[in-house]
Amino acid sequence: MTLIHVINPNTSQAMTDGIARTAREVAGPGITVLAVTSAMGPASIESHYDEALAVPGVLAAVREGERAGAAGHVIACFGDPGLAAAREVAAGPVVGIAEAAAHVAMLLGRSFSVVTTLSRTVGHTRDLIRSYGFAAACAGIHACDVPVLDLDSPSAWASVGKTCAAARDSDGCDVIVLGCAGMTGLAAALSGELGIPVVDGVAAAVKLAEALAVLGLRTSKRDEYATPPPKPVLGPLSGLALPEPPG
Ligand code: 5HY
Hints:
The chain is of the alpha/beta class. The chain is built from 8 helices and 8 strands; from the N terminus they run βαβαβαβαβαβαβαβα. Helix 7 links the parallel strand 7 (about 175-180) and strand 8 (about 200).
């Protein structure tokens, strides 16, 4: 049994249920999905402030997943909150849905456009795509102006679909990337409507984490992602202080 640990960094159980559904649908034979909701942080992540508040919950969840024997972790929020820090404290691979979706999109076409939720998340998404080295291939980033927790309705799906079609036509992109875990499950139908591939970051990240785990590949601990040295942590996050290494 290979355990893939899927973390919803916001505290919305309904969103975790949708994320878990997709993760279990795409997981291969012999793969067990453990989907969890962050125990602390914002109900949804739609700003830099939300993102900052979500990181401790992600790190606490990753450490719990490590104790549970996870072979790989997925951070199921399109901002990939805490991704680099999570890679420092996890032995297995940690995959963010934004980074995974961009990598998969680049296997399917020369260019992709991202459809995200609120316009205020466009800047961070652009910075993220650039930090992953895909700025040249990203033809555009568009907001559907639907808050994260309002995405689960037919009218929201219609807004996402309309924004995807507009992005395809205005950007001339080969691929659409869905810019929120709350859009998981929409990709297949949208791809049929739009006539171009639509990438679901949750599905992409679970399959990439699974592939790395099955290949026995783990995060390099040579330097940058080595476990940080333990030090005192004061205040409400003191429980996240790293233990002395054994021996
Ligand atoms: C997400 N927020 O995937 C991001 C999407 C966004 O709570 N889950 C969230 O709008 O950045």
